[in-house]
Amino acid sequence: MRVVRAVFPSLNDWLNRLPDPRLQELCLYAAAHLWWQIIATCLSRQGSRNGFDQQRQTGEAAWNMGALCGQTSEDPRFDGQPTVTCSDNAARHASRVDSERVAQIPQLMFRDLLERRLFDGVRLFDRWYVRLVDGNVKEKCRQGFQKGGKSSTNGIRYRYVLQLSVIGPEGTLFPLMHEEMDLHNPETQKEDCELQSFQRLSQRLKKEFPKLPICLVADALYACQAIVEVCQRCDWKYVLTLKKDRQPTTWDETIKLLPFNRTNRVRHRLGAGGKAGLQDFRWVENVMLGAFQTNIILAGEITPEAATLYAYITNFSKLSPERVAIVVTHHRTTDLL
Question: What is the pLDDT of residues 55-106, one digit of tens each?
Fold first, then answer.
């Protein structure tokens, strides 16, 4: 409760201001109570709504819920004996509220943290806010699910959502925006759906934060001309994983240009005296990716356990050993999230 009050003192107000279609004179629970029930169900990690429901009235749960949502035992509707609503009631309430209105709350939370300058210490090159984008499974539909097209060969379909998050201090991850993926066409590949969803998400992100310096970090799916064009149009930076099979022409050109850029390299020894391994960085600037020029960073790592090569494309310019190391470190950090 102290953390919520200190970091997001307006959170209950935001929850209570969400559309509430209930007849208020017949309501036992405040709107914030219903939303906190949903939040608590997720945080408890009981595995199901029923798992949370079975314990929601035990111990100090009812009084703790009241302290969180601001509806304490002093509320005359409780008559001194607070309770926690069931998940069916909370789910029904949530189903009657526009999800886009609910999705605005993480944006309000992010703006609040921006004003508190929480992200200042983790901005890339003291300027760029690092945004991580990735597709995630939202729901594994039941066998035989037919809505919007045929089910897959094994009778199971997956519904995906594109999630955009902000990298915070100590590698924390702050979900900010999401975009539903259109999987109604069973012939459509996941890659196409994810990239098309990002086109819509990027428009929303630019509209909500038109002047915010953003650096996009993503996997090899996004290392393509369409995403580079979006970043150039929005004046964003990007650091994207490069795979040989995804962009063979760009990869081949990079390998051919490496001998002409022998000075663009730096080596780091890992551990005391290099006993933990070696880390090599090589980079080539102004490599063609479709109709655009980009910069390529190769990061090789040799340890007693394995030898690994990582590759990235980026539009950060004037690369130096120090800047290359910072760019790679930020991307590797997101790989661990």
Answer: 899 999 999 999 999 998 899 988 888 999 999 999 999 999 999 999 999 9
Comparing C-alpha atoms, which of 11, 18, 30, 39 is closest to residue 82?
30
Residue 319 CA: distances (Å) to CA of 247, 263, 265: 22, 12, 10
Cα separation, 110 vs 42, in Å, equals 20
**Which residues make Cβ contacts (< 8 Å) with residue 224, sequence separation at least 6?**
195, 246, 247, 289, 290
Spatial distance between the Cα atoms of 201 and 155, rounded to a whole number of angstroms: 30
**Angstrom distance (rounded) from CA 36 to CA 195:** 33
8-state DSSP, 128 = B
Domain extents in the chain: 2-97, 99-212, 241-337
- Strand order, beta sheet including 292-302: 173-180, 158-167, 129-140, 214-218, 237-241, 307-314, 292-302, 277-289, 265-270
Rounded Cα gap, residues 266 and 283, in angstroms: 9
- How much is the pLDDT for 329? 82
CA–CA distance from 79 to each of 24, 30, 43, 83 (Å)?
17, 15, 28, 10
Secondary structure class of 329 (helix, strand, coil): helix
